[in-house]
Amino acid sequence: MNVPAWAWALTVAVLLVMLAVDYLGHVRHAHEPTLRESAWWSAGYVAVAVAFGAIVWAVWGSRYGGEYFAGYVTEKSLSIDNLFVFVLIMASFRVPRAAQQKVLLVGITVALVLRTVFIFAGAALIENVSWIFYVFGAFLLYTAWQQIRSGGTEEEEFAENAALRLTRRLFPTTDDFVGDALVTRIDGRRMVTPLLIAMVAIGTADVIFAVDSIPAIFGLTQETFLVFAANAFSLLGLRQLFFLVDGLLDRLVYLAYGLGAILGFIGVKLVIHALHTNEVPFINGGQHVTAVPEITTAVSLGFIVGVLTLTTVLSLGRTRADERAASAAAPSDETRD
């Protein structure tokens, strides 16, 4: 895939404009977004990502267009899992609802910068170390097993990571929020507020999630341009998605199983790709033949969309059945009397 410098520059410019709109138009004045506002902006971000994919399809062909869409859908689905942890972080730090947009946006911006570093490092590894596909594949298979085994159960409390503990140790922190300020001065001493600490928590937590998602998308495309764009567009829509699905996340009871199936599928795809890339021979009657064909992009995209659709339908069905059962088991007013 030959991507000229102007295409990179234009893509980065679009992303910077999207960030500027968020910073200047949404979080400049702290407020709690309505469901309608979140829905419209979330749809707008998805529309931009789809339009980008359509351009890739038209300019570079269906192969790369399909790879981008497969990567974007995968990153978007994995980001929903991230939202569970974001909810825990917001609750742990008791972030005021009106300030949560700012926390999410700054944390996501930090994660975008750090993920970009990881993406180019991953691309360099793939370019120079062909056996890295075996490592990525094995890691995704392990992660898939962990997802399925956990069944989506989350920790009841958010556990601070090393980066967050280091931040607290280096910078004196106020006990309470000071509006939506990140830094304040108390008795002549400059201190950071819990709002800034929460941003660090969001950013570092998302980078940890990148350990899963970046190998996953490299299993769908090895084009750095597509990996970067799919990651960026999925990340920039997380703020709106958080407020759109907040309160509905607990209804996706089978999400972990669906994500486990997707990660396992991509892990197998990576191992098969590694066998082809490293030209591992299978001998059949003296002939070197390819025993297992590579999984096509169309099959990958179909599998990912199919699993997500089935997961959502089964989750909502299970939730409705549980609600009906709970309602039937609850004592009526006459029984209580």
Provide a quick synopsis of the model.
The protein has 337 residues and is mainly α. Helices cover 72% and strands 4% of the residues. The chain has helices spanning 5-25, 35-60, 62-93, 100-128, 132-150, 162-170, 194-218, 224-236, 238-245, 255-277, 297-329, 333-336, and strands at 183-186, 189-192, 282-284, 287-289.
Question: Can you tell me about this structure?
Answer:
- The chain has one domain.
- The chain is built from twelve helices and four strands, in the order ααααααββααααββαα.
- The protein has helices at 5-25, 35-60, 62-93, 100-128, 132-150, 162-170, 194-218, 224-236, 238-245, 255-277, 297-329, 333-336; strands spanning 183-186, 189-192, 282-284, 287-289.
- The longest helix has 33 residues, at 297-329.
- It is globular and about 65 Å long.
Low-confidence stretches: 283-288
- The chain-level structural class is mainly alpha
Largest sheet data: 2 strands, antiparallel
Q: What is the string of SSEs from the N terminus onward?
A: HHHHHHEEHHHHEEHH
Averaging pLDDT over every residue, what do you get?
79
Distance between the termini: 73 Å
Shape: globular
Gyration radius over CA: 22 Å
Level of helix content?
over 70%
Q: Please provide the count of β strands.
A: 4
Order of strands in the sheet with most strands: 1-2
Number of domains: 1
Count of helices?
12
Instruction: Tell me the β content.
Output: under 5%
